[in-house]
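Below is how a single chain appears once it has passed through the pipeline. First comes the sequence as given, then the structure the pipeline wrote out for it. We keep one example in the README because the format questions we get most often are answered faster by looking than by reading.
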Amino acid sequence: MKKYNAPKVRESKSVQVLTTIWLVPFLAMIIALWLAFQYYAKLGSTIEISFESNAGLIANQSQIKLRDVTIGMVTKISLSKDGKGVIVQAKMNKEVNPYLNDKAKFWIVHPDVGSHGISGLDTLVSGSYIELYGVKEEETKKKFVGLEKPYIDQTANGEYYLLAAPNSYNITEGSNVYYRMIKVGRVERVGIAPNGKQINFTIFVKKEYSKYVNKKSQFYANSAVSIDFSQGKVDMSIASISQIVHGGISIYTPVQTIHSDKNNTIAQEKVFPLYKNLSEMKEKHLMTGMDNKIYKFNFKNSINRLEIGSPVEFNGFQVGYVTDIDSSFDENNQSIKSDVYAIVHTKAFTGKSSQIEGSKMIEELVRNGLKAQLNSNIPMVGSQFIDLVFNKDENNELLVDNNFSIFPTIKTAEGSNILNEVEKVLVKLENLELEKLLSSATELLDQNKKPVNNLLKDLRKTINHFDTTVKNLNKLTEQDALQTLPQDIEGTLNQLSTTLEEIQKLSKDYNADSIFASELSITLKEVTQMAESMGAISHKLERKTNALLLGDE
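Resulting structure:
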């Protein structure tokens, strides 16, 4: 049997350190080092941001974003040393380091539900995150104080305007701003004024629409339902679903001022009044500015129909509103004493070319006889308002009491308006001397007593005859024959209707175009021919009596 040569294995007596079995972990280690290098190469600075509270941030999960790009990660959240806030530590990407300077602004974005809708909707899935606004410069800071509200970029592509109103009218940050029902911006800020007298609004209008806003523009809060009773008709309009859900502010600008050559530039300190709704905006106002001053009024009339919010008017234009009514019992007069406080827009009393302040002008007007009185558009039932009128019978000065200027008042004439008219009518009736008129009428009746009595007797007879006639008619209608008469008439009419239908049917059957008429015509022709034949036979028999037996020959 032939044997094949087997391979010979040579034993190695040396130690092999680098073998193929070490290649896999070596490559894994290189990859891990490379990934670690990439990770640490991207890491930028570690920063600290302090907030008043944590609005849903989670360590190692919540992100930091700049223009919707993730640029960092929250790594730790802890209380501040004084316990009044929280400290958020975050690792930033290396390319963001140039944005970490004095111009950097941080705030927390979280879901918020308000009258303007839902903001931060993306956070419902991803969770709360921190937004950064910054300008690329040299890195100078690593500790920041976060904002509780989103930062307003004053260099944005648009314009910002300031509004003021007595109340917020349910307008919140993020509400829309409209011009002619088109969305042109948003509400950026809503807050109480530092003096506590009003609510301030900051709105943003996009650059392409800012040309439609000038110093003649007016602003009003949108209403879900608007009803207008002017011009003798009712005009009701309902806002769109978007406006009802989001709410917002509308802008009205007179058309002739949009491209006018006149200087309609808005001053930097200009504050526009925000009206409650469109109807209030249409009313007459002199609110050319928001320079307000509180005045105190003491009225001698009853103020039971004066309310907080009632207007203060001058020559039919609203220049302020009532802010408070302080009533108390007056022991001396045993009546109710009321102190009325009202805000007056002093800027309304400043002329276009005048350099005198509004409050100084009011002082001058008071010296010239300007006083306040209660008035009402609808007497006795309408709500009252403060009307500033001139009464030059007595000049006054503005007195000061507890830092409030006391406005001089005059008592409204009792029984004004409709009551005066009623009084005039009563005077006229009194002048008619009704007693003499009644006595003359009585004397006239006495003189004609007999004719009147005869007339009354004749009238009674006529009434009695009429009554008898009515009774006879009732008896006649109650007879059985009359009771059954309608039934008999109805039966007769039914029979007559049936007869007419049969006659109509018969006329249709025997008219000129009917079958009967054609058959009758043929029969008559045959009868005529037969009559002619019988006539010929009769003549033959007359000539020859035996013709039937012997024939005609």
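The chain has a mean pLDDT of 75.

See the next section for the split statistics.
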